[in-house]
Amino acid sequence: MTYRKLSVLTLAFAAAGFSTVLSAEQASQQLQEQQSADSGANSNKSKEQVEVIEVKGFSTSLIKSLNDKRFADTVVEAISADDLGALPDVSMADALTRLPGISAVRTGGQASEINIRGMAGGFVFSTLNGREQVSTSGQRNIEFDQYPSELISSAAVYKSPKASLIEGGVAGTVELKTTSPLAAKKDHNVTVNLRGMLNDRANEIPDGTEHGHRFSLSYQGKFLDETLGLALGYARLFQPSVSTQFVGFAYNAEADIDGAAEAEPNELISEGFEMQHRGGEETRNGYMAALEWVPSDKLTLKADAFLSKFDTEAFARGFRVKFDGANAAIGNPVIENNMLVGGTINRKTNGNTRVELVNDDNTDNDEVLSLGFNADFEATDNLTLNFDLSHSAAKSNFRNGLLWSLVAEDANAAVPVVDPNVSISYLLNGLSLPSVGFNQEAAFTDINRVMVSKYGIYPYLNEDEVNAYKLDGKYRLDNNFLSAFEAGVRYSERDYSNDRSVFEYGSDGMFLSSQPPLKLTQDMVKVVNFSGAFSHFPSYLAIDQQKALNAWFPQGVPQPVQTWGTGNTGILPEQRVTGGPDTAWSVLQSGEVYENVLSAYLMANIDTELLGLPVTGNIGVRMVETEQLATDLTDVGGDATLGAQNIMDEAGLVNTRYKPGVIGQKYTDYLPSLNLNFALTDSDQIRFAAAKVMSRPPIDRLASNTSYTIDAITGKVNGSSANSPFLKPFYATQYDISYEKYFEDSDGAFVAALFYKDIESFINTFTITDFDFAAAGFPIPAYVPGTEPGNPDGLPPVSTKPGDYTTAVNNENGGYIRGAELAYTQVFKFLPGFWSGLGFSGSYSYTESEIQQQVSLGAQTIDITLPGLSKNVATATLFWEYQGFETRLSARYRDKFVSEQVAVEAQTVNFDGETVLDYQASYQINDQFGVLFQVNNLTDEPTKSYFGTPTNTGTIQFFGRQYFLGANYVF
């Protein structure tokens, strides 16, 4: 008889925070059920004897993950419930980055977006309990920091698809699951976890919060002779969010600085840079509920709900330096790679070179809701039907309130004026902090010089929801080739809306007589010094934004509105106000997207022998019909015969230029897939997978919002149609092959894999410089509105000029992504004495691609790699367990990669490689009570980025270490 050595399968819940161990009989029965249910199961194998090896603690979760991978019918990486419950990960993003080929993009020091096999988060599709999830970001990929690890019982990353999986992930599909209450070991149990937190950098941040906490409470119960189950969970996170940062801005201007224009292109000039303290508080409250009922042996009903609210209050204090591009006087230039990286920038007469003191307060309220109902019915001995109804909704309300201050000649003057004597000296230092100097430095802390010049608030309101209906059927066969047929149909309706609004008062570059600056008082400000590595930067005034606004607007700050703004052509003449800001973007960038998807699949599960080797797997095809539509405002120049209508905004202004409508397209795709698993021996197997996959464009990029602006000073016209409802998905054909070795004499495995993705197309955004908007049909006036000859204000006329036009297209020039993965896990049980608790788990991934994309730097373009691609990604965990004590050190490394940083606007940059270390120690005092100590980001690893080459500094940002001390109690 064949003996298969298998570690105990555990069923633990992340909300419980502890491990439970099944008996040998239960583990054997569950293994048989899993083998019968999975298409990779052989009926003869279900009768094999299983030797159960009990392993508790962190090693239990590792072996459970290997078992999930071993018996899966696709190329998959898994994290068991024990793993999630044992590690106090702040979110699911942290947990997932421990898997081979998975890396994270840190936002605010926390892992949020994940990349799979060198592809960015936009290529990752995610489900919760098998149901599509929408996001608060306006993208396809969910923000994993929205999902508390305490409320998720298991996670899997499907690197190869099968026809029954919902389409959408070129990189892969992440499946999260909440608990099944009837699978709990005990009839009733309650678990409480509490952890205190400290960030060691918060004391450097003015008004920074040092301490936080995590708390979770869960209940699991079974009733009515274990036919009714209930699970409830609550998880709270309150943590400080702090960082000290330098951010270089994009190179968006050019000039002949060295006087050699005929011999070489003009040099590129950065927009400037900023140095800031950032702080705030993040509060996440997560709720989970599941009710499961088995009224008969043939029917199982389950309803579940998940709700997560993530609220952020954040502030930024410091400087923002604006060079004014080619309009500035540049002395002592330092040029590298045709880019200005140092020099002395002086303000010209009527120029706009300046140093802004930044005092911003932002709020972000995000909410994710997922509801589902599932009925599983065994119609006959061979036929099983499953019906699923789901609702997923996300809301995001981000309000960034920006307060600008400038240096005045004399803040006490009857009519204050901006000090025109501005001189800025700087020299970038690559991935280290730069040298900077300001001639106005002494004035930055003087309320007799500094005045508030502008306040602006620019809310982003996103709402996204999907309702889906799914019916699946499985018919089991008893023959020598196929074990079952599966078929299903799914229909979903998705609605996405994005609303912008605005309120602005004053100017960030000058003092306006019509909206005069605010004189500061001592009770509104305090002097702040930079410290540590940033100590050579000058001190500044941190302003209490609320006190300043109360003084500036004693009747209350007006609320932002969605408005056509002032000074815009097309607004009724009696409503126009010359010289005002152009805020029509708040209307043009708002809109809705509708997406209806009908899909169906047919899949055969394989269970046979080939050349004497057992072969399992599946082959199938998925048909997907997609209809995508977006609301649209087409500029028809006010021609009523072409459909122009009077469109009123929230401020009561009426625009006569646009024709409203709904535009879009409909298309159908067929996605075949094949998964095969060859059992070489009881412990060795080879997997092969091939499939055609797709990822739809980010939902916000299907909006129709072509718009343009006219610079009131230079007359330059800039436009964008970066979004389009006519964008098609990303398509790829992919192949996977892997060898898996599961150790017989000890617990662990070795896995080696190769993968290849042939990317057929992807979305690229191009910027066309010197684009003639008027010649292309845009209704561009000859002069900047308000400066026309003979205008009532008598302003000098400024003629409009060609500028930059940014647009998005489906680039049909694809290419390959290919790579290799290695993973090794070993629990050294064979070592003597207490050393038997020693173990190691690690992985390494290498990924390369021939795909090159282009981004604009001024009038030039440079090639960049595919966003999210790191050639080298590695993880390693060394752990030791002994008589209730457990300690482990974990590291995750990723090579340099391309992504976006957020400054004044989102900017595409190269991020430098990083290594993040975490440490944890815990002791289980008795069966009920345990204590824990943990340090995240042990070395205070910064985030660093650059433009093109490391000499052109992007971001240098430090977040601090997070210390946790806590306990859990089970009763």
TrEMBL record:
Belongs to the TonB-dependent receptor family. Its main location: membrane. Residues 461-938 form the TonB-dependent receptor-like beta-barrel domain. PANTHER family: PLUG DOMAIN-CONTAINING PROTEIN, TONB-DEPENDENT RECEPTOR-LIKE BETA-BARREL DOMAIN-CONTAINING PROTEIN. Residues 1-24 form the signal peptide. This is TonB-dependent receptor. SUPFAM superfamilies: Porins. InterPro entries: Beta-barrel_TonB, Beta-barrel_TonB_sf, Plug_dom, Plug_dom_sf, TonB_rcpt_bac. Keywords: Cell outer membrane, Membrane, Receptor, Signal, TonB box. Residues 71-172 form the TonB-dependent receptor plug domain. Gene3D superfamilies: TonB-dependent receptor, beta-barrel domain (2.40.170.20), TonB-dependent receptor, plug domain (2.170.130.10). It is found in: Cell outer membrane. The keyword Transcription regulation does not apply.
